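Lay summary. Proteins are chains of building blocks that fold into shapes, and those shapes determine what they do. In this project we predict the shape from the chain. Here is one chain we studied, written as its sequence of building blocks.
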Amino acid sequence: MVREEDVKLMSRIAIYEKRQGRSEIPVNSFYKGDYVRLNALKNVVSATITFVLTATITIAYKLDYILANVLKLDYKRLGMILLAVYAVWVCVYWLIARVLYAKRYEDARPNILIYNHRLKKLQEARQKETVKAKGGVVLSDDFTDF
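And here is the predicted shape, written in a compact code that computers can read:
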């Protein structure tokens, strides 16, 4: 038998899944530290790719100067500068990612707890209905008499 309370509960669950749930439900499968580290690592990889592409474009843009001064350039100093810029670049990306994903996790957590509570409530209601449909008598939440 369909109860109005169950329909309202299912509607709330479906609305959450369709709107916020798409981005928040995957968060539930991770611990906070794992979620933050994984996404920070993804951002470090993307920062590295971005840095390599930016450096390649810059070298291509300055290629005429580089070819004109091939023997005059201090490659050791240039490499150290490039490495320092890369380190700063990655650290900034990493810090921003850690702060951003920690905040996302914390913001999603209360909504996920409510979502899980509603799912549990719906599951308990279905179990009670199943027991009644099979001819059993539900005496309390913890005890079922057949």
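What the prediction tells us: The two ends are 20 Å apart (CA to CA).
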